[in-house]
Amino acid sequence: MGATAQTESRQTALEIVAADVCEPERQQTELSDEESWKEHQRKVEKFLQLCDEMSKEAEANGLTDEILAEILAER
């Protein structure tokens, strides 16, 4: 995955999460409970899909469970 694609993927993921965290009042006043729940579910599904795509790209680029464990152990 190229640096630009990684940056865009991270930015998209952050935007999805930030939208739910930063705008709860707007959602509560403009959307019904059911609509709000559906919107939240849509964002969760989009986020999970993005994570899945990033995982597949990382694996295609040679990332293994062992390499990932080493990277995470360093933090």
Task: Give a verbal description of the structure.
There is one protein chain. With about 80 residues, the chain is an all-alpha fold. Helix content is about 85%, strand content about 0%. Helix 1 (about 5-20) packs antiparallel against helix 3 (about 35-60). It is elongated, with a radius of gyration of 16 Å. The model has no long low-confidence stretch (mean pLDDT about 80).
Keywords:
4 helices; single chain; 75 residues; mainly alpha
Count the strands?
A: 0
Radius of gyration: 16 Å
**Structural class by sheet pairing and helices:** mainly alpha
Head-to-tail CA distance between termini: 22 Å
Mean pLDDT: 81
Q: How many helices? A: 4
Shape field:
elongated
Short description:
The chain has 75 residues and is an all-alpha fold. It has helices at residues 3-22, 24-30, 33-60, 65-74.
Mind sketching the topology for me?
Layout: H1 3-22, H2 24-30, H3 33-60, H4 65-74
Helix pairs in contact: 1-3
